[in-house]
Description:
The protein is of the alpha+beta class. 35% of the residues lie in helices and 23% in strands. It folds into three domains: 44-306, Protocatechuate 4,5-dioxygenase, Chain B, CATH 3.40.830; 312-414, Glycoprotein, Type 4 Pilin (2-Layer Sandwich), CATH 3.30.700.20; 418-495, Dna Ligase, domain 1, CATH 3.30.1490. Strand 13 (354-361) and strand 14 (364-370) form a beta hairpin.
Amino acid sequence: MFHLKYLLFLILLLLFLFLLWPKNISDKKISMPKNIFKKMEEKIKPATVAGQFYPASKIELENTINSFLNNVQKEVLNEKIEIKALISPHAGYAFSGQVAAFGYKQLENNFDNIFILADNHNSESLYSGISIPTDFTHFQTPIGNIKISNTIRSFLKNNLFKNIPSAYNSHIIEVQLPFLQKILTHFKITPMILSGLNENQQTKLAELISQQLNSNDLIIVSSDLSHFHPYDKAVMLDKTCIKAITNGDVEEIKNCEVCGPNSILTLMKIAKQKKWKIKLLNYKNSGDIIEEKNSVVGYSSIIFYQEKELNKNEQKILLNLARKNIESRVKKNKPFEPDLNLISQYPKLLEKKGTFVTLSKNKTLRGCIGNILPQEELYLSVQNSAINAAMNDLRFLPVEENELNEINIEISVLEIPQLIEVNYWQEYLKQLTPLQDGIIIKLGSKQATYLPQVWEQIPEKENFLNSLCQKAGLDYECWKNPKIEIYKYQIQSFKE
């Protein structure tokens, strides 16, 4: 009997202890303060060059950047373009900070993710590939911490990418960050340090970035130009390199002296695929800042941008306007009266633009007329070009009513043509991009143009120029004449 009572007591005691015992280790974790998790998750990359390349004091750093930015005006064209990328120098702020400010001044506070590309500068971190940081979640500067974007994870699937933490123990990424912190409020970064890439790997990286690139993203390439040449030689080398970049000449850039060749070439490949335009904002070298002229380093600020294109609603209004005008002129012999209240809601339709309206029937040209240079508001230009293409193209009889349902309309909105400057005629071939550039040839009072779409019929550059010479009523190879003027322009085209 005694044993039975003892056994029952033991069973009850064990049951009591079991009920008091935590069910599993996760119960204890759930009861822990949430801020402990936050501290455990965040891994801060401390500032490496604060106090060396830029001030270590937050107040002094912000005042320094503000002084640089206050010396720069926003470009007039800034309101009409979307900046997609920068090439920015990465020397100490005393040397290159003012040049960098020219690029950063142009940015609007609307970027979500910043891809920052630089070539490896740490001789103790020798590797081949692309280093992306997986050991830390934030970069630190005296102004605060910047979070690394989750976009990093999408690149880990490719064996080109690896984690080389020591590659980030340099200035090349870090010096760009305080400028971003002063211009932008809510953003993340996707930093990449490139090393020893071949051309195929550069192309692959360009493709991978393009796939991840959203409309609110920005690319920054951190790179200086030539290093340690006498002043005059450095200026000559740097101007040649800048010309290659702004002309989009990927082949010529390979011969440039820069400290970020992989990064610049990758950006150029993206820019070519995206049809971005390129503009130099400022250039200086260290000899412009200090008296030492025998051994200088070059710095540039270059933007990559695209015109703010017409959206779908604006395109629809213009296409409808073109069709209604053609129908009204063919059926009633008078123009269509547009809804000016509707048009006034779209400021881009009120900007003066050059336009062409192209009519096709059964995939065959049926009329094409327009203006190269801006002469009137966009909606009026489209209206008049549409009527002229239908009724006044001397190559065709006027469009008749029974054709209207078979006619397809395409509108091309032109940017202002830019003169191509060359030293000899062979250079024209390097500066033309098929399917992207519209071309004008002009000699004296004679001139002609082909829209970019014509490259589809004449893809060879020399044949394209020869044909355009003939269209202008000039000699077959007139484009080789030293007196010739050749202009190129880009368009936004859309059709029904």
